[in-house]
Amino acid sequence: MERAALLFWLWMLAFAVTALWALSQAAVASSFGVRPTLVKLGYGPNLVTLSLGGIQWALHPLIPLGSSVRFNGPPDDAPTQAPADNRLHQLPLVLHAATIILPWALLVVVAMACLGAGEGLGQFLTGFTVPFQYSRLPDRIERFVALLRHGELLQAWGLASAKVAAINLLPMPILAGGSLLALPWRKQRERLPVWAAGLNLVTLLILLPWAGYALYLFGAAIFR
Questions:
Q1: Residue 135 CB neighbours (<10 A)
Q2: Rounded distance, CA 210 to CA 185, Å?
C-alpha cells in the first residue's frame, strides 16, 4: 500500500475512533437529560459548524487525534476547569460516572465485534500497560501498520479502539479515568486533594514522551 493510502487510512481510523467516542458521550448524556453545549470532532481548522438539536456541532477533521464534548458555558469559551454550572453536575453521581465510562465501553464493544469477543477484550485489558512498555512499542506499531498495508482495516479498527479505550481509562487527571477519580469533588474542585493535583505533572511526564515516541515510530514505519 502506498504511503498516501497508509496515511489516509490511519487518519480515517483515528477520526473514526475519536468521533465515535464524542458522539456516544453526547448521546449518553442526552439520554440522561443533559444536553452538551458543543461537540467538536477533531482539531485544527474548522471545516463546518452548525447548530442542531440545541447543540453546536463543529467539524475539525485535519487533526484526528482527539475530539471533545463540552457541557458548560457558551461554545466559544474554553475554561481550564469546569465551572459550578457544568451541566453534568445536575446528574446523580452514578449517572455522571456512566456518562464518562459508557462511551469508552462502546469502543470496547467495537473491538470485540471487529476482533472477536475474547481477542477484543484481551486487547483492551493489555492496553492499560501500553504507555509503560516503551520496549514493546516499536513492534506494536510495526504490526499495526502492517495490518493497514495488508488491508486488514477491520482488525486495525478493533485494535485501535481497544487500546485507545484502555489508555483513556487510566487513573490520570487529563484522562477519563482521572475524571472518575475526581467525581467525589466535582462540585468543590478547590477541595481536590493535593496528591490528585500532583498527578497532573506525573501524567504529562508519562504521556507526552510516550505520545511523541509513538508518532515518531508511526512516521518511521510509514516513510522508511
A1: 6
A2: 29
Neighbouring C-beta atoms of residue 41, cutoff 10 Å: 23
CA-to-CA separations, 168 to 34, 54, 108, 156, 162, in angstroms, rounded: 22, 28, 12, 18, 10
Q: Kindly state the cell numbers that stand for 120.
A: 477484543
What are the C-alpha distances in Å from 180 to residues 65, 93, 121, 144, 150? Answer: 22, 10, 21, 30, 38
Instruction: Name the nearest CA neighbour of 161 among 91, 104, 98, 219.
Output: 104
Write out pLDDT tens, residues 123-169: 999 999 999 999 999 999 999 999 999 999 999 999 999 999 999 99
3-state secondary structure at position 55: strand
Q: What stretches of the chain adopt beta strand conformation (E)?
A: 38-43, 48-52, 55-59, 63-70
Cell numbers at 22, concatenated: 464524542
Global confidence as pTM: 0.88
Q: Is 74 exposed, middle or buried (0-12, 13-18, 19+ CB in 10 A)?
A: exposed
Summarize the confidence of residues 162-190 as an average pLDDT. 87
Domain that holds residue 172: 3-223
**Helix H or strand E encompassing 92:** none
